Amino acid sequence: MEPGAGLGLQKGPEVVKVGVYITRLDNFDLNGKSFDATFWLWMISPEHAHNRLDDIEFVNAENVKFTNSISKVTPDGTWYQRKVVATLHHDWNLRKFPFDRQDLHLKLEESDSYIDEVIYVPEDTKFLVDGQMKIKGWRVVSSKIRPSINTYMTNFGDPGLRSDMPTSFSGFDIMVQIERTNFTAFWKFTAGAIVAAAIALSSYAFHVDKAQTLSPRFALLSGAVFAAIISLRSASTGLGITDYNTLVDQIHLVSLVYVMIATFAGVYTWSLYRRHEDGIAIERLGHRVAFVSTLLLVFVVAGLIRKAMFL
Fold first, then answer.
1. What is the pLDDT of residues 104-133, one digit of tens each?
2. Do residues 38 and 107 lie in contact, with contact meaning Cβ atoms separated by under 8 Å?
3. Is the distance from CB of 165 to CB of 193 less than 8 angstroms?
4. Which of 5, 89, 92, 289 has its CA 20 to 30 A from that of 47?
């Protein structure tokens, strides 16, 4: 037995055509996990049907405002339209930042009538986004609208249904995929990691056969660690705390490993010098470590960036 069956409906569900036209996307809040959308929403219902816009639930909305409500009787049914300004929840996936794409969803669902009473059918799937809409730092890649059926394992206390009967409601999902085009923030977030690596590299310039350079060398390496950690914390604050490692996090971690290698190299070459006192040979060893570790750093970072860009 289908949800809503037995309620005296014999003519089949009411078919409602729906359409949407998005005019604005902004206020992208990474920490608050939300964005704002402004769009026109309309429906064409059979003649004498009530305004189904009043029954629509914005499933992932945190705040919704309506303006400019319009209705008109046409040969195809009653046309209802209104402008919607909504703040919508979005779980930003920043693993590939700043080479990320985001699928922004607007999920709408019937809240009053069951699936056997009303069905929503998208009217136009081609022109969902205003072509003149500008999103600072982003560009629209694609957009689509598709019907959906949402089933719940409850009858919501409806006395006309069995207590063990699930209920289904018609709805539709709107998705706009956007791609980041501004990489300025990426360089700001990774500048500390780059500086830390540069400081660590400069530590190899200290002569191992001069005891007075030992303290400044390790002070410099301590400063490199401090710079990398502060930069990582700043990036985490800017992007928001996540339970996964972003590309920015990975670059900082690689930078910290590079600084640790420079630190171990300093300790090892100093201990070798104290035992063998062959300053020239030991400095050559240190320079080889610097060359190999720097080359690995460049290759690893380049590999991480390439993976984020193309995979």
1. 999 999 999 999 999 999 987 778 999 999
2. no
3. no
4. 5
